[in-house]
Design a protein that fits this description.
By secondary structure, the protein is of the alpha+beta class. The chain has 2 domains: 1-39; 40-210, no CATH class. The chain has helices at residues 5-39, 42-50, 74-87, 92-108, 157-163, and strands at residues 52-59, 62-71, 109-117, 134-139, 144-145, 149-152, 172-179, 195-201, 204-210. A 5-stranded antiparallel β-sheet has the order 1-2-3-7-6. It has a 4-stranded antiparallel β-sheet with strand order 5-4-8-9, with no helix packed on it. α2 runs antiparallel to α3 (74-87) and α3 (74-87) packs antiparallel against α4. It is globular and about 50 Å long.
Length: 211
């Protein structure tokens, strides 16, 4: 019995609907992946937020300085390496190279990305040997360690804004490393921090803590 026009339309719709669902489902996955490559994945943002601390020092209404730091732990390094690979569309070999590089740095030292804002930028000089700032890492047993090195970040300004969005235009970005033993010692007591990054200077003092 031949199809009436109404039956033909109904049959066409029944076949077209599953195809459309599959098509949009596939497009949705691709669009989501592309969005994460361009805008950043929620997983990286979450890990960075978890590892970042900020402290502001004020004198009345005046801001003396703002200190932010991200602990570049092995967990963070893995997330950063994945994010870096996705953003720059790296191939598998290159991706492994980047992960290996960051993993090696993380295993050799206890590292932090530090962003510092000081109203007078002449006093924003953590990397200089004669700086008036003192930067120490204190572990759970209260033993403190000076940095192995403090250097200006090797990332481009656009990359700093992308991977460390809290580091604004008026901040200076540093990479800071402390000896590996700074992460050792006795386990902290419940509720007490595992690591404390302490910045002291004539402008004040700031303590950032990680459990």
């Amino acid at each position: 019995m031949p199809d009436t026009p109404r039956r033909a339309v109904r049959r066409a719709c029944l076949f077209a609907l599953p195809a459309a669902v599959l098509l949009f489902a596939g497009c949705g996955t691709r669009v989501s992946t592309l969005y994460e490559k361009v805008m950043g994945s929620p997983s990286y943002a979450g890990v960075t937020e978890k590892h970042t601390r900020t402290k502001e020092a004020h004198d009345g209404l005046d801001t003396r300085f703002i200190l932010s730091a991200t602990w570049l732990s092995p967990e963070w390094v893995r997330a950063f390496s994945e994010e870096f690979a996705g953003i720059y569309y790296l191939d598998a070999a290159r991706k492994e190279k980047v992960i290996s590089q960051w993993k090696t740095e993380s295993e050799a030292n206890v590292r932090f990305f530090v962003a510092l804002f000081v109203p007078d930028e002449r006093g924003n000089d953590l990397e200089k040997p004669d700086t008036l700032w003192s930067l120490r890492l204190v572990r759970a047993d209260e033993k403190d360690f000076p940095p192995v090195y403090v250097r200006k970040s090797g990332l481009k300004p656009e990359e700093i804004s992308r991977f460390f969005p809290y580091s604004g235009t008026w901040y200076r970005a540093y990479e800071v490393a402390f000896p590996k033993e700074a992460a050792g010692g006795a386990a902290p007591k419940p509720g007490e921090p595992r690591l404390k990054l302490v910045l002291s200077g004539v402008q004040g003092r700031a303590v950032l803590a990680w459990e």
